[in-house]
Each structure stands twice: as C-alpha cells, then as structure tokens.
Amino acid sequence: MDNPQTILVMLRHAPHDSSWLREGLDVALVAAALGQDVTLLFLGDGVEALRDGQQAGPLGQKGSHATLDMLAMYDIDDIRVDLESLTRRGLTVEQLNWPAALLSNDALPGLLAASASVFNF
Amino acid sequence: MLLHLLNRSPASSGVAHDVLRAMGPDDRLLLIESGVYGAVGPQATLFSALHGRCFALADDLASRGLSECCADWITVLDMQGFVMLTEETQRTVSWF
Amino acid sequence: MRYGLVVMGGPYSHQASHSALRFAQAVVDRGHRLETVFFYHDGVYNASRLSAPPQDEPHLGDAWLRLAESQGTELLVCVAAALRRGMIDEREARRHGKPAYNVEPPFELAGLGQLVEAGMTHDRLVTFSP
Q: Could you tell me which CATH class the domain A7-120 is placed in?
C-alpha cells in the first residue's frame, strides 16, 4: 500500500459497556501500522472515552486509557473531539485526559467528505 | 457525495441527530431496518430538510407494516435501488 | 464495480446478516463483483459451521457458503474478534490446545489489515451493523 490514504475512524460508543470503542481503535491502530494517515474522531457517547479519572472496569476490562496510550506509539496524532458532543455532556476540552483538537459544530460533513475511507464505530 | 445508512428509529436513538449533522448538502440518506420507523410521520419531519435525497427500503417498510404510511416525499427503494444508490455515491457510511 | 461488505451483527440476533445477504444478491444481480465479506464484532458468529437453526428458518451460514461458491467471494473473519468469542479454525485450535473447531473454509480467519485494505482497494465498501 504505497500511497497513504486518509482513513477516518469515528468512535461513537461509550467505553466499558461494549467492545465498540476497543474494536474501533484496533482498526485505527492497524491502519496506522500499515502506513495510512489516520484521523480519529470522538463523537456522541464516544467522547466519554476521553473523560479524565476513569479506571479499569470491575470485570477486568483494560479501560480505554491503556488503548489510548497506543495511539502515540503508532503515530496517530490527528485526534479530534466533537464540540457539540462535549457540550451536551457538560465536558470541556480542558477536562479531557488526552490532547484532542476540537471539531467545530459545522465541520463534520467536510471531514467525512475529505476522507478516502470512513469506518464508523 | 456520500450515502448514509441509518438503522435506528429516531424515537429511540440520538444517532439520527448525528447523521443529520454529518450530512453534506448533496449527501443521501437511506433508512433501513428499524430506521424506516423514521419514514413515518410525525418522526419523518426530522428529515424534512432532505427532500429529494431521503430514501427508505421497501422490504423493511413492508415487514414492519409501514408500506402504506411512509411519508409521500420519501422515495421507497427495493434492494436493487439500494445498490444503485451505492453506485451513484462515492462512499457509504453506516450509522447504528 | 468491485464491492466489499462488512458484517458486524450476529446471525439470528440482529437483522444485519439478513440485510447483508439480500444486498449481496442485489450487488451480483446488477453485474458487480462481490470480492470480499469481512466479519467483525459479533458478525464473526456468522462463520460457525455448527449452527443448527430450525428447518423453517433460513440457514444464514449456508447462504454465505453458497455466495462464496457461486461468486468466489472471500469470507474473511477477524481473527482477534473471533478468538475472543470462541470462533476458531483447526490451526488456531491446535495452537491454543482447544478440543474442537468451528471455522472452516471458505471462511478464513484474517487480520484487520485486510479490512483496511478492502476499504482502500474496493470501489465500494458497505457496512451492516447490529
């Protein structure tokens, strides 16, 4: 895969209660390992993955932070978080446990249109 | 131009709101599975800004008893029509 | 056009597999080439050779087999999602010391890289989710 493409992975599910977050992140990590340009977008309940103060789950789930730590290792640095989703949940970007760029409320269609592949989790 | 697929009833899920925010001015929306509950009034008004680019899958309307009450401005498609929509649009994004 | 499908819903739990199979037939009927179906999340359960639905219900596993036979479609099952859920082929069963296996060709355990590649190389990739 010689020519890197922009791959958008959208994470829309909260951590802990399902595998969507982990399985979506796995797609992003693999795409990055294959040399693609990955954009990660936290949208809807997915922004909860970035809330500070989370712990490993009571049933031995690794928690989202362990997986998020992998992002830097795989050179995924284009990480965005949807402003409206944060606002609806009473969160500000300063309260997040991860450096993420704010996606303004009207920027979503442009981001989807500009990506060569879109994976929605 | 993208095709968005929605398989959730707007009455039970906030995802319909996210789809509408994600759609560009020419993007199409196809309601499938329980998404077709959104093709019936009063829920259908949520999609009224999509006149001419909102579609619903005929089989899923029929199986749910909705064939006769689908909003008249929503275009009903069979499976081949679904495939045609994917031909005409560059990419498909599934919302669930 | 070259099409790929992603199936993320479990059979008999969600409509996703049914929708994907009906869409697959329509893709073929319109003269396209259905190259790949990638099973991820609970979609990996579609690959079980041991499912035994009642006779008056559609056999989804057999429907996927017929698709592979008639169209040469690759049936790729995410290995990480599959092993966690007890979906395992002969080779992995031996490697993990398991007494049995339930994934057989034409279903094939595959890495997520093949999903990413399908998104890049196919003209269209359509996802069916639970």
A: alpha beta
